[in-house]
Amino acid sequence: MTASDPTPARPGTRTLLRFFLGAFAVLFALSGMWSIATPLGSGPDEVAHMVKAGGVAYGDPTGRASSSGVRDFDVPDYLQEINNTACFNLQPNMPAGCMGDIDGSRDNLVPVESSAGMYNPLYYAFVGWPTLLLEDEQAMYAMRLASAVLISVLLAAGWTALFARSRRGWGLTAIAVAMTPMVIYLGGVVNPNSAEIAAAFALAAWLALLVDPQRPGLVRLSIIGSVVATVVLVNTRSVGPLWALIILGVAFLDPRFWRVCGRRVDFWIAAGVMALGAGFAAWWMLSQGASEARSGFAGQGEVTFAEGFEFMFSKTLEFGQGYIGSFGWLDALLPKGFVSLWTGVMFVIVIAGLLLGRGWSRLRLFVMAIVFVLIPPLLQGSQWYTLGYIWQERYVLAILVALLIAAGVALDDGTIQPKLVQRAPTVFTTLLVTLVAIHSFGFIMVVKRYAVGTFDGDGWSLLLQPTQWNPPGGTFTIWIIYTLTASLAAALVYRLVLERPLLPARLERLVQRGTPPAVTAAARNDDAPGATATAPHVDRQHTKEHS
C-alpha cells in the first residue's frame, strides 16, 4: 500500500461482533475437542486444579493447611477418585483404561488435598461451578468445557483486536503461528496457565489496536478490552502480575500510547480498575502465600543464582518442545522435527520484525524479545536454591504470544511491502497446511498415548483394534472433526490475510436472499468512512484493508 492509497474504513460494531463470535466458535470447538479427547486428570497438575475449583465452588477458596504447600478442601467425593490418574500419569506406555470409572455424589463432601490450594480463586470460580449442578465425570468434563469457554473468549477477543487494525496481514499471520497445539490443548484442560496465556494474548492485541492511528474510533473499545484482559491476567497465577507489568510496560514506552490515552478520562478510570484488580491479586498473594511452591525439587540448596541463570540461558534454544507440544504430564511429546519446524517459523517472524520493522513498533518488539530471552533464566535462577528446579517451558507462553503479536505488528507497520504475503499465496498456503497437519498429528498422537500407550512412537496399528480407553464419540471420529475444524480455521485465516471475502459468493447470495432489504442496505454501509456502527456485512467491505 502506498501513501496515496485511501485510508481503509474501520470495521463497524456488527462486523467486529460477528468476527468475534465466529472466532470464538472455532476456538471453542478446537479446545472443546481437546477437553473430551483426553482422560480426566491427564492435564498438567489437573487433579489439583479440579479439587481447588471444587473447593471454591463450595465456598471454601482457601482450604485448610495440611502440609507445606498443600491444603485440604471439602469437595464432592468423585473428585477424590480422580487421583486414580496416578496409574497412567508419568507412565507413557500405560493406557488410561487403568483408571476405571468415576462415581460419587455432589452431596457427599470429603477432604481432598490440592497443591494449588493457595492460588488466586478467580479462575477457579469460572470453572468450578459445574460441581454444584452435575456429578461424576459429567461435572469434570463440564469444568473443562467451562475453562474452554473462558479461554476461547479471551483468544477470540485478541483475534478481533488484530482483525480491526488498519494493517493486519502480518499480525494475523503471526497470531496464527502463536496458536500452537500446546496453547489450544491447555485451553481444553483445567489449569490457570491457560487463562494466563489467553489473557496475555488479548492484552497485547488490544494494546496494539490502541495505538493504531487509523482507528481512533476504536480507542474506547481497546481500553475496555485491555482492562478486562489485565484484570484476568493478574489474577491467574502468581507470575500473572509480572506478565501484565511487562506487556503494559512495553506499551508505555511508545509515545503514541500517551498521545492517544494521556488526556482521556476513560483511560484513567480504566487504570484505576486495573489497579484494583492488581491490588486484589497482591493482597491474595501476601495473605495466602500464593507465590510459594512446594520444595524438594532437583538442585534445592545446591544451585546458586549464577549457576541457574547460566544453565537456563544456555538452554534458550531448546525450550521449543514446551511451546509447541509437551502434553499431559510431559509424557506425550510432539516429534522434534515438528517442534523445530514450528519454532523456526516463529524465529523467522521475530527476526523479520526486528530487521524490517521501524519506529516504536520495532522498539517494542526488541524490548519484548530481550525480556522473553531473559525471563526464564532470571525466574528459575532466583528460585533454584530455595525451591529447586520448578521451571516448565509452558510457563513463558504468555510472553511468547505477546512477542509474536509485537513481531506481526512491527511487520505491518514497517517498511516491508504490506501485500508481500498476498503475492506469495503458495508459500502462505503451504505454511497454513503445515500448521494444520501438525495440529492434526498432535491430536491423534495424544489420543493414541492414552488409548494404547506411546510405545516410543510405534503401536499405531493398535488403534485399529479394541482399546482400553476411547474418547467419547470414538478415536477416529473426533480426530477427523478436529482436523476439519482446524482446516476451516486455516481457510478463514487465508481469506483474511489475502483479503478475500470470508463467505464464498454462492453462499453469500444464499445469505442475502434470506436477509431483509433494509438490513442488506445497512450492511453495505457498515464500514463506510465515518461509519460508527452497524450491520453484519463482513466480506467485501474489508477487501481494501491493509495486510
UniProtKB/TrEMBL annotation:
List residues traversing the bilayer.
Answer: 16-37, 141-162, 169-188, 194-211, 218-234, 240-258, 265-286, 337-356, 363-382, 394-412, 424-447, 476-497
Residue spans of biased composition, Basic and acidic residues class:
537-547
The superkingdom listed in its UniProt entry is Bacteria
Transmembrane among keywords: yes
Assigned keywords, A-Z: Membrane, Transmembrane, Transmembrane helix
Residue ranges of the region described as Disordered: 518-547
Query: What Pfam family is a match for this entry?
Result: DUF2142
Q: What is the protein named?
A: DUF2142 domain-containing protein
Which species is the source of this protein? Answer: Pseudoclavibacter chungangensis
